[in-house]
């Protein structure tokens, strides 16, 4: 099997547990991202190597994004089943807040403005206002003094996590919806200062290593 990194931990645990049920069954799950899983299950070894290598012929794929109606029509023996529920969450790194154990409060509309390049600095008044409104006055004053540019970490590969994240922000902001859209691909049509990383772990470690950055990942990795 191959596909989304979102359910990877769960599938790894399930495969481990299944060895106690039937040790003759050998299983593996290659975390390629949802796009890689869908390409493998649809195209098999007719697909172009996406950099993750074999296996190309797989028995099941994990995907956070749905098959499109034309894909269902083209591969009528393919079915999707819900297997796991989870959350995609924002992750950020602001040393001045961390040092004083202060929260960062952002409305979805403000997060959308950050990810679409409308807000470029942590001292932005929208960020200040969210924190005041959320009762985080001390944090708001700390943020207001930060002249730091926001580095925005996003996924480098075709990713269902990206699609979930974009759909959520598109629901909070018409500008985001029109300008960025909801594609699972690493397409971010704006002047935000983006950094691209592979997989949830790549985005999370990028944020961890970069002061004044923000990104998104599945809750388990956050
Ligand atoms: C925020 O910081 C930037 C970068 O130093 C600066 O250009 C801008 O004027 C600041 N904005 C406010 C509202 O202080
Ligand atoms: C990027 O946004 C601009 C302004 O909305 C638009 O004209 C352009 O077509 C967009 N480009 C892509 C690749 O979506």
UniProtKB/TrEMBL annotation:
Domain PBP: 1-217
Superkingdom as given in the UniProt entry: Eukaryota
Pfam families given in the database record: PBP_like_2
Signal peptide (residue range): none
Protein family membership: Belongs to the PstS family.
Entry protein name: PBP domain-containing protein
